[in-house]
Specification:
- α9 runs antiparallel to α10 and α11 packs across α12.
- The strands form six sheets. Strands 9-4-1-11-10 form a five-stranded mixed beta sheet. A four-stranded antiparallel beta sheet has the order 13-14-12-15, covered by helices on one side.
- The protein is about 30% helix and about 25% strand.
- It starts with a strand and ends with a helix.
- It is of the alpha+beta class.
Length: about 450
């Protein structure tokens, strides 16, 4: 399994992640090709090799929308303030650069006296439908375009919740600027290019201190960033700075299927994406590690969802099981329980891949009478599995083999096949099971 590890020891931002993926091997020209249909000129995006605390890294750069408007009008000699700086703010300084990533300040940003590096205040106030239209012009696959649009919807939902407004009324100001769309669309494309099957992230260093907005001082992490980080492990490093931006939080939490230390894998590529500032005490970079998961490492991360139900028609439990499994759950089981006031009830337990948690939670609320769902992530170890077919005098039967380190520990015939053959030949199912087991053992002894 191709695995990507996000090492967020110095936080995360959208441009740092995309820079790291390019540094790890995604061709910049391919990113340009995917983004070119957004009506970008070739000089709009580029990369620079920089050093951060002695570590060489790739800085992903974007020319801001105001600079592009000037360029189209024939205005030359852009200042450095026309170019997008690092998305994260230095909290010791009042000259820090707020960029498109600061979703928490966007709904009423016009009075912000802070400098905006890429000049998108006049050009970057887009609604979700406007952003979706831009994404539809990208060269992403259909699934990639859908995912990018879903990311912006989630960003809009975070803003709406923070500012007490509706999703329909949200204008994504700085994160609605073209360079923010580039970060998100570019990252979705880069991950598609890498064909990563599993993403694991370290806990995120959110920094500490406070940031100043038009509404006053806000603690780090900023409100929208913190909301996007719900469910992810975070910690406050010693840096008096905002280390994780809303776009960084959005992308990491959208793709990470598990959090923790580097998983067991054979490393094939490493990339470093740089922030703008060169911090004194640590490299201001996001590191990605790409490799193949070690076949001997059978550990997986799953999410376990639970809900207690005591007031539902029992017939619905059968319907629920079918729908939950169709939604990608790995398993579901029911446990009889006794609840408050002596009421009999049922505990619904679902085991699923972490990325299916939101969809399954929504399904439980829609299909059952519960008013609460608990969840937790757990590690599990699985045997390697294989299905073979054996021939019996009554017909073919699939046989499930389970191994650990090459040793067969379990082998059993597929019960549905046994029931089918039993019905066809009017014999007991246990008779077919015995025939299938004997056929497997004969084949094993012959070395087949």
């Amino acid at each position: 399994m191709k695995t990507l590890y996000l090492d967020c020891f110095s936080g995360a931002s959208g441009d740092m992640l995309l820079g790291a993926l390019i540094d790890a091997g995604v061709p910049l020209d391919e990113v340009r090709r995917a983004l070119g249909s957004l009506a970008l000129s070739p000089e709009t995006i580029w990369t620079e090799h920089v050093t951060r605390a002695g570590v060489r890294a790739t800085k992903f750069c974007v020319r801001g929308e105001e600079a592009q408007v000037h360029a189209a009008a024939g205005v030359h000699g852009h200042s450095r303030s026309d170019l997008r700086s690092d998305s994260r703010s230095d909290l010791h300084s009042h000259e820090h650069s707020h960029t498109h990533d600061h979703a928490d300040h966007h709904v009423h940003q016009h009075g912000d006296a802070h400098h905006h590096d890429h000049g998108q205040v006049a050009h970057g106030h887009r609604t979700l439908p406007e952003i979706a239209a831009l994404i539809d012009r990208s060269a992403l696959s259909s699934a990639g375009r859908d995912r990018a649009k879903q990311l912006f919807v989630r960003l809009g939902e975070a803003e709406a919740a923070i500012h007490g407004t509706s999703l329909e009324r949200v204008h994504l100001h700085e994160v609605g600027a073209l360079d923010s769309i580039i970060d998100i669309v570019g990252t979705v494309f880069a991950l598609e290019q890498l064909q990563v099957e599993r993403v694991v992230s370290s806990p995120l260093n959110v920094g500490s201190g406070s940031i100043r907005s038009a509404h006053g001082l806000y603690p780090v992490p900023a409100p929208a960033t913190l909301r996007l980080l719900t469910g992810a492990p975070v910690y406050s490093g010693p840096q008096q700075a905002e280390m994780v931006t809303p776009t960084g939080a959005l992308l990491v939490t959208a793709y990470a299927q598990a959090y923790g230390s580097v998983p067991a894998m054979r490393v094939s590529a490493i990339g470093y994406g740089a922030g703008t500032r060169d911090l004194r005490d640590m490299p201001n970079v996001l590191r990605v590690i790409i490799g193949e998961s070690d076949a001997a490492a059978a550990h997986q991360t799953v999410v376990v969802l639970e809900a207690e139900i005591d007031d539902m028609n029992p017939q619905i439990f059968g319907v629920l099981m079918e729908k939950v499994l169709a939604q990608g759950a790995l398993d579901l089981f029911y446990t009889p329980i006794q609840m408050k006031k002596g009421r009999p009830g049922m505990l619904v337990t679902i085991i699923a891949p972490p990325e299916r948690r939101d969809a399954l939670t929504a399904l439980i609320f829609r299909e059952t009478t519960t008013i609460g769902v608990r969840y937790r992530e757990m590690a599990r170890e699985c045997l390697d599995r294989e299905t073979i077919t054996v021939e019996t005098p009554l017909g073919s039967v699939r046989f499930k083999i389970a191994r650990r380190n090459g040793e067969v520990l379990n082998a059993s015939p597929e019960f549905d096949d046994c029931v089918r053959l039993a019905a066809e030949h009017d014999v007991p199912a246990k008779h077919v099971q015995a025939l299938a087991t004997q056929a497997y053992l004969d084949a094993k002894n012959r070395g087949l």
